[in-house]
Amino acid sequence: MSDKRIIIVAGHYGAGKTNVSVELALRHAGRGSALVDLDTVNPYFRAADSVSELRRAGVRTILPEFANTNVDIPTLPPDIASVFTSDEIVIFDVGGDDGASALGVYKNGIEAAGYEMLYVINMYRPLIADPGCAVSLMREIESYSRLRFTGIVNNSNLGDETTRRDVEASLPYAEAVASLSGLPVVFTSVIGEDRAPRGERDILVMTGHTKKLF
Questions:
Q1: How far apart are CA 203 and CA 111, in angstroms?
Q2: Over pLDDT 90: what percentage of the chain?
Q3: Is the pLDDT of residue 73 over 50?
Q4: 145, 178 in Cβ contact below 8 A?
Q5: What is the CATH classification number for the domain harbouring 136?
Q6: Residue 166 in domain
Q7: What global pTM score does this model have?
Q8: Domains contained in the chain, number
């Protein structure tokens, strides 16, 4: 896991950013963690859906003002500024171009605190199934956010239908994205140890805390 205080999780819609963000926030809960929901794109699939579980675990949640209501107005949570003066491990769940642009507002504070920015990929999502397309989108997000990615998370899955073979088939794809981008694959995430590729060391076993897209 990262030794940086701020961990930014971003990527294409449907790649599984929220699942990864929630898992990381829960894993850091013992040290004191906060999750900032900057997913302004999709009000029906974001970290706010897991707020009760996060708060029970002691994770401070910083959500858009109208999250989980029938009012869909993109807003920046006013409490975000507090994360730059705290000692918490802070996870930013960033969705889409709007979320990346919002992230850029806090560029100076993020850089001063020290950050890791993880690009979540899923080989089974059509618009990023090609490694070159995945890297092109990565560069777009960097342009909007004015921040640079530091690593890749291979979150390739088919929801509940995912098998170990599906995950294993995604490993060359993840390495191709890594090669084209010049960034390392930080870990491959799986839901359940039975789906983890044999012999792989850098595995994050997730417990399925958020909605499943498939």
A1: 27
A2: 57
A3: no
A4: no
A5: 3.40.50.300
A6: yes
A7: 0.88
A8: 1
